[in-house]
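The instructor's notes for this session suggest beginning with a concrete chain rather than abstract definitions. Hand out the sequence below and ask the class to guess, before any prediction is shown, which regions might be ordered.
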Amino acid sequence: MDPGCAGAETRQQVKDQLEALILQMYKSNILYSEAVSEFKKRFIITVLEENRGNQCKAARQLGMHRNTLSRTMHELKIDVRPLRAGAKRPPRSARPAVTLEKRLVR
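After discussion, reveal the predicted structure:
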């Protein structure tokens, strides 16, 4: 099977699922603004999870500027801290010492 054809089929399946979801939301009297807000929030959270909370990488994949992502996250009340769990750098005191010689080599 042609990889391009498989990708087109997958895209069509996703579009069909989205159409079914939209119809379900409409019939449930969900307002347009609520639907758009929830979609944005879930989409952004998913991309952030895939990038372990790294906003620069997530923004690049979303096709937006990092500041726009940050502002949108604030508007949607998305907290990135739980997504970064364990991804923080250790404090300087816990890192191996880097000598001046090693810095010059870099």
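Then share the key points. Residues 48 and 101 are 37 Å apart (CA to CA). Residues 3-86 form a domain with the Arc Repressor Mutant, subunit A fold (CATH 1.10.10.60).
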